[in-house]
Design goal:
heterodimer; A: 425 residues; alpha+beta; Cytochrome Bc1 Complex, Chain D, domain 2; 4-stranded antiparallel β-sheet; 14 helices; elongated; B: 454 residues; mainly alpha; Formate dehydrogenase/DMSO reductase fold; 17 helices
């Protein structure tokens, strides 16, 4: 579609041109907008349109209650560029839709959802399609209005009483006075030849299309006030404040409860957290069996298992299970210190890494059970504490299992019970 | 409906000395009459009070939280999503009639397209309501849109729920444009006949200065054709995307490739049923029998029959695939659907959607307004149950038997569903009263008088 065509399209719609100085006038001496002819059927209109077209007029139009079939040809209406506008909008929508998803999910903020790729055409098609359609549809509608110069509140034809029936059952043709070929007599003769049912002079529209001043002021005022919140937000951007932030919807940000380390006026000392009452022990907190709870006999590490713990087959299995849960990631199943955490750390090769100790080394073997127990409870150097996660009973079970691992390293057939030896090879 | 004939002003032949003027008069007098028929007032009062109930319920919902509904694990989606899918489905017929039938040059659509489009818009409004109030914190729905924010987060565009936002949002916008654009020439007709300045001003503003120029008609028709061509794939995409909400989940009973076409067929099915339900009374009360003829209703019944049969085929195919796939879970989901605790809902759905519409094979039934009305209401009920069955029966017994349960709705579930009908009918009745309910210009353009020389 060429520029030329779109230009001619607008030229034909341009009914705003001021009448020339020697402009034709109506019978009453008002400036003339054009001459209007009325027809009763689409057929009459088509015939008239062909005549006017052939006479070479350009600034004229026909009007009908519905699109008359064949009028484009009869009137010589150029093909509209609207489809191309829509095509352009569709391409833009496609790009915007795909680009938005690529950039937001694939570049700016990547997050992995069930291992799916960050950007894959298949998963992004629905939204791309919808945005393409949306852009195209808005352009089809907006483009139609814009090319048709709508909305158009006021028009010369509004003053013609008969013209009201154009949206009902009448058909009209209007040759405008601004047409270069317009001639007071020749044009009227031509119109008479098309055998209209009625002919009328249309005076030019003298009403102003401008909005009243009042509207302008109000609009300007509203526009300015609308900027205030934005301006305020901009001015306080990045500043600090001692006031709590504004909660428009409080969600559950404020709850009526006392938090640790906060004050509570109910108590004399004003503390929300209550200290232990002097000379008392909370139930279960006594832990007077030092061997069992701390792995110590007197000041020294216990060398035997506490009396409350029975090292039997069940305890061994329990110890294996707990060890596999808590220790394997670092110390590995065999206890040699090459768990997956350690392996991954080596891959990263960051240099500061302290590897988990090989539990089957001689120095660990020599450690009393109480010391091993203590390592689990409180951790050691770079190893975190597991006391809060593992019960004392289970800690002892793990120690038992670690002992088993240590023996297994240097084990031979003689360590296996006679009954089970047959199964080994 | 015999007793209504005494509202003679509606049943008189339209004034006007030629065919075009008669069409104008028949439609515009509905808008111009100082007082609509009493039935309109009755219906409007009823619809308005249900709308009020809906507002109260939503107010209480925002105050108290979604615990007022029966939504509970395992059926956390509950009725709000059932209602959402139900209303979106209804909202499919309008655009289908306007766009698809337009592209196929089915001229009979001109009698019903305007009201069907209006119905679409109102149904989509009802549909959009539900995700909005279902999210629990209704002040945060803007999180669904890609707005820059201080957390530097973006929506997850690979999720079908995000697709839904775009699909339904686009569908609403495009349907609205289509509907409004189609109305511009008719609004100009009302403006030109208006007696009071206020009317002239309001309809004039809505008509945007349309004066029926042929150069304008040319672009208008192009734009209309383009919109129709855009709306056709769009209407198919919308319910497909809604079905992805289910189909992309790995739940037996949802995870199936038949969902998109099955949902689209169901949507057209329910949409047409709703159009018939609305148009039969509308044409009776507003004397539009000359424009919305029996043959139009007959065509719609045929489409209901066709789509109803497709839906029946889909039901059967789901069972077949559940068996043929050899998946135990899939098999269990369907046996449980038909014979488990929700068997009552399943068989209600099957009889409403598959068995009843088969009556439209008979010409006699397609010519009987009461029968048509009844079957279409039954279809609407059945389609609501279809969504309920899909959601409730699949969720209530999934892989973990320890978390099986049974969904029990609360009174608020019922009130909100009824209230959404109140919203829908309020809008539709206002439309009947104030806007051209038949596409005047389009009807004229396909009238024989417009082609007098052939």
């Amino acid at each position: 579609m060429s520029d030329e065509e779109s230009k001619s399209e607008s030229a034909m719609d341009n009914t705003e041109d001021k009448p020339k100085s020697d402009a034709p006038t109506t019978a009453n001496g008002e400036p003339l907008h054009g001459v209007l002819a009325e027809y009763h059927t689409p057929k009459e209109l088509l015939a008239a349109a062909e005549k006017i077209r052939d006479a070479g007029y350009t600034v004229w139009d026909t009007y009908s209650p519905f699109p008359v079939h064949g009028i484009e040809k009869a009137q010589g209406i150029p093909w509209t560029i609207l489809p191309w506008l829509v095509f352009g909008a569709g391409c833009t929508g496609l790009t915007v839709g795909l680009g938005m998803q690529l950039w937001t999910n694939g570049v700016d903020y990547k997050y992995l959802i069930s291992g799916k790729p960050f950007f894959s055409i298949a998963a992004n098609i629905p939204i791309t399609f919808e945005i393409t359609v949306l852009f195209s549809a808005l352009t089809a509608f907006g483009g139609m209005l814009a090319l048709n110069r709508l909305p158009k509140p006021s028009h010369a034809l509004d003053h013609v009483e008969r013209f009201n029936r154009v949206t009902d059952d009448r058909f009209f043709a209007l040759i405008e006075a601004t047409d270069p070929k317009f001639d007071d007599t020749a044009t009227r003769t031509l119109i008479a030849e098309t055998s209209p049912h009625h002919v009328e002079d249309v005076p030019a529209d003298t009403r102003s299309e401008n909005l009243p001043k009042f509207f302008t002021y109000v609009a300007a005022f509203l526009a300015l006030t609308a900027l205030i919140p934005l301006g305020y937000a901009y001015s306080v951007r990045g500043t600090t404040s001692t006031q709590p932030r504004i909660h428009i919807v409080p969600d559950m940000d404020f709850q009526q409860k006392f938090k640790p380390q906060r004050g509570n006026p109910f108590f004399e000392d004003g503390r929300a957290m209550r200290p232990q009452i002097e000379g008392t022990v909370a139930s279960g907190d006594l832990q007077d069996d030092s061997h069992f709870y701390r792995g110590k006999v007197g000041k020294a590490w216990a060398r035997t298992f506490p009396s409350r713990f029975t090292p039997n087959e069940a305890a061994m299995q329990r110890g294996r299970e707990r060890y596999d849960i808590f220790c394997v990631p670092c110390h590995s199943v065999t206890g040699n210190g090459s768990g997956i955490v350690a392996q991954h750390a080596l891959e990263l090769a960051e240099g500061t890494w302290i590897p988990p100790t090989n539990l089957t080394l001689a120095n660990i073997k020599q450690q009393p059970v109480g010391e091993l127990y203590n390592t689990i409870t409180h951790g050691i150097r770079n190893m975190p504490a597991y006391g809060s996660q593992i019960d004392p009973e289970d800690r002892w079970a793990i120690v038992l299992y670690v002992r088993a691992l240590q023996r297994a390293q240097a084990g031979n057939v003689s360590h296996v019970p006679a009954a089970k030896r047959a199964g080994l090879k | 409906m015999a007793q209504i004939t005494h509202y003679s002003q509606w049943q008189d032949a339209p004034a006007g000395d030629n065919e075009f003027a008669k069409i104008t008069d028949a439609v515009v007098r509905v808008v111009e009459t100082p007082r609509p028929p009493p039935a309109w007032y009755m219906a409007f009062a009823l619809a308005l009070s249900w709308l009020g109930i809906l507002q109260l319920c939503i107010g209480f919902l925002f105050w108290e939280g979604i615990g007022i509904w029966g939504n509970m694990h395992p059926v956390a989606w509950g009725w709000p999503i059932v209602n959402f899918v139900f209303w979106v489905g209804i909202g499919h017929a309008g655009t289908l009639i306007s766009a698809v039938l337009f592209l196929f040059r089915q001229n009979w659509r001109t009698a019903i397209n305007r009201s069907a489009e209006a119905m679409t818009i109102f149904a989509v409004i009802c549909a959009l309501l539900f995700p909005g109030i279902h999210i629990g914190r209704p002040w945060l729905p803007y999180w669904m849109f890609p707005l820059p924010n201080q957390m530097d987060l973006w929506p997850q565009f690979r999720s079908p729920l995000a697709w839904d936002v775009f699909a339904v949002g686009t569908y609403f916008t495009v349907s609205l444009l289509f509907w409004y654009m189609g109305m511009i020439p008719d609004l100009a007709t009302i403006r030109n006949r208006a007696k009071s300045t206020l009317r002239r001003f309001i309809y004039g503003a809505l008509a945007m200065g349309w004066r029926g120029s042929s150069r304008q008609w040319h672009r208008y028709e192009r734009a209309y054709l383009i919109l129709a061509a855009l709306a056709t794939p769009l209407v198919l995409s919308v319910h497909s995307v809604v079905s992805f909400d289910f189909a992309t989940a790995q739940l037996p009973g949802w995870h199936t490739t038949i969902f998109p076409p099955y949902f689209v067929a169901g949507a057209i099915f329910s949409g047409f049923a709703m159009v018939v339900t609305l148009l039969i009374p509308a044409r009776q009360f507003f004397g539009l029998k000359g424009l919305i003829e029996m043959k139009h209703l007959d065509m719609m019944c045929r489409i209901i029959l066709a789509t109803g049969t497709i839906v029946g085929y889909a039901y059967a195919m789901e069972f077949f695939v559940a068996w043929y796939s050899g998946s135990h879970y899939e098999g269990f989901a369907f046996i449980n659907r038909a014979f488990g605790p929700y068997a009552w809902a399943y068989w209600t759905m099957v009889s409403c959607n598959v068995i009843f519409p088969q009556m439209f094979w008979f010409k006699k039934i397609r010519g009987n307004l009461w029968a048509m009305m009844l079957i279409c209401i039954v279809v609407n009920v059945g389609m609501w149950f279809e969504r309920f069955v899909i959601i409730a029966t699949s969720l209530h017994r999934d892989f973990l038997p320890s978390s099986w349960g049974y969904f029990i709705p609360t009174p608020f579930d019922f009130l909100v569903l009824m209230g959404s009908f109140g919203l829908f009918f309020t809008l539709f009745l206002l439309f009947c009263r104030f806007l051209p309910i038949v596409a005047i210009a389009e009807i004229k353009s396909v009238h024989p008088a417009a082609h007098g020389d052939h």
